[in-house]
Amino acid sequence: MSRPDLKVSFCGFQCENPFLLAASPVSRFGEMIERAFRMGWAGAVTKSVSLAQDLPDHSLSPRFAGIGLGGSGLTAPYKGGLANIDFRIDQSVEKTMADYALLKSRYPDKFLAISLKAEFDQKQWQHLAGLATAAGADAIELCLSCPDPCGEGGSCAGGSIGQNPQSVKEVVTWVQSATYLPVMVKLSAHVANLAAIGLAAQEGGAAALTAINTLKSISGIDLATLSPFPTIEGMSAAAGLSGAAIKPIAQFCLDELAGEPSLQLQLSAAGGVTCAQDAIEFLLLGARTVQVTTQIMLEGYGLIEDLRDGLAAFMEKHRFRTVEELVGAIRPKLARSSKELSRRQQLIAQIDADLCIGCGRCYLACRDGAYQAIEFHPDRTVRVDSEKCAGCGLCRITCPVPAAIRFTAKEEHTEGSA
Predict the structure, then answer these.
(1) Collapsed DSSP state (helix, strand, coil) of residue 211
(2) What is the arithmetic mean of pLDDT over 346-357?
(3) Distances (CA, A) of 99 to 104, 136, 154, 391
C-alpha cells in the first residue's frame, strides 16, 4: 500500500493535510502563522478581527488561567484546560489586515480564513467582510459564539449571536452579500439545539461550520487571597475554557451536527485536540479539518509532526488511502440515543491475578460507586462475584495497570480467573 494521502478539500481549497490553527492567540499575527506554515500546518483561521481593536485602551493583564485536573491554580506543567478572558488583537484593524494580506501573498498554497467578530450590526459585519476579502483570504469565519455579548437591540438582544438561529441566519446573509468568499460559522455549545443553529447558518448561505468555540467558565479561586483567577486588581470575570477538558463536549456537538440529515455543510472540529488520536477521532466523527489552539500554546507549532505522523500511521494500519475515506467512517456505529442500543450484551469483569498489584482501587470504586461485586481479601487479592457484576466498566477505568481487567460475556466467565 502506498503512503496515505493526507490532502483534503475544504471550502473549495485543497489543503495539504487536515490540520489548521484555530482562531486564537496562536494565529494572532502574520509572523506567527508564517512560522506555523513553514513547519507544516496546512492552514490557519486567524484570531478574530474586531473593530474594538481600534479603541485606545489595552488588553487585560493577565488574561490566561490554567485549569488543573484537581483544584485551582495548580503549578503542574500539564493543565486540564486553559481559560482566557480577553479576545482582541493588540494592533489596529488596518495593520492586522495588511499583515494577513502579506502572509497570504507569500503562502498561496496554504489555507487562510480570516475570522471576524462584531456586534449585531449589518454595517460592521459587511465592512469587516470587505476588508477580509480585499486581504485575499480563502474564506471568512464568523465568530458568533465568543463569551462576550452582542450589540443592543435587533433579534439578538442578550446573549451571543450564536445562540439565536434567526440572528445567525441574518449575519451570514449580511456577510454573504458583501463577499464572494465561502463563509464558515463558529458555533457555541451553549445552546439547546446546535443542529438548529447549523441549519440557520446553512439557510443564510454558509459553506462550513466550526464546532466548537470555548465554553463559558469560572477559572477557579485563589484560596489564599480569596480572589478569582485570573486576578486583575482583585477581580475577574467569566472566561472561555479550551483544552483537553472540553473535548468530549466538542465531540458531542460535532456528532449532533454530522447526524443531522438536513445539514449539508462541511464541518471543521475545534476543542480539546492534544494529540494525533484526538484529531483522528474528530475526523472519524465527520470533521474534514481539525483546528488546534491550546496544545500549541503548551507545546508549540511543532505539534504538527505528531499530528501528521500519527494520522499517516493510523491510516496505514487501517488501510485508509485518503482522508476523504476516513471522514465520518464511524458514523454508522453511532446511535442517536442510548435507547437504540442493544441490551442483549451482558459482560462481566475478569481480573488477571498475575497483573493485579493489589492496590484495591477497583474494590473501592465498585463498593462505593457501582455494584459491590468485587471482594478484597486480607492478602490483597481480589475476586469478582459473577452474580453481582453488571459489567459497568468502572473497575477498569480506575485500575492503574493496563490490561489487568478485561470483560467477557457472562457465560464465558471463569471463577478462578480472579
Answers:
(1) strand
(2) 97
(3) 9, 11, 33, 57
Which is more confident, 154 or 91? 91
How would residue 154 be classed by pLDDT, with cut points 50, 70 and 90? very low
Instruction: Tell me the C-alpha distance between 235 and 230, whole Å.
Output: 8
Whole-model pTM: value is 0.93
pLDDT over 90 (residue 114)? yes
Question: What's the CA angle centered on 405, arms 401 and 407, to 5 degrees?
Answer: 155
- Residue 57: what pLDDT? 77
Give the pLDDT confidence score for residue 76 in this predicted structure. Answer: 52
Average of per-residue pLDDT across 206-230: 94
Query: CA 84, 90, 96, 99 torsion: positive or negative?
Result: negative
Q: 38 or 149, which is more confident?
A: 38
Q: Which residues lie below 8 Å from residue 218, measured CB to CB, with a gap of 6+?
A: 228, 238, 239
Place of cell 481593536: 53
Helix axes 303-318, 30-39, angle to 10 degrees: 40
Cα separation, 7 vs 321, whole angstroms: 11
Residue 5 per-residue DSSP state: B
- Which residues contact residue 2 at a Cβ distance below 8 angstroms, ignoring those fewer than 6 apart? 321
Q: Give SS3 for 258.
A: helix
Which of 11, 146, 253, 366 is flagged as catalytic? 146
**Looking at the DSSP assignment, which residues form a beta bridge with residue 308?**
none
With bands split at pLDDT 50, 70 and 90, how would you rate the model's confidence at 1?
A: low
| Residues of the chain above pLDDT 70, percent | 92
Distance between CA atoms of residues 20 and 372, nearest Å? 47
Query: Does residue 366 have an active-site annotation?
Result: no
The C-alpha cell that represents 111 in the structure block: 489555507
Q: How far is CA 240 from the centre of its chain?
A: 12
Cell of 200: 440557520
CA torsion sign for 308, 314, 319, 323 is: negative
C-alpha cell belonging to residue 57: 485602551
CA-nearest of 214, 250, 267 to 86 is 214
What residue spans of 205-352 are helical by DSSP H?
A: 247-258, 276-285, 294-299, 303-318, 323-326
73 or 284, which is more confident? 284
Phi, psi (degrees; rounded to nearest 5) at 59: -70, 160
The rounded Cα 16 to chain-centroid distance in angstroms is: 21
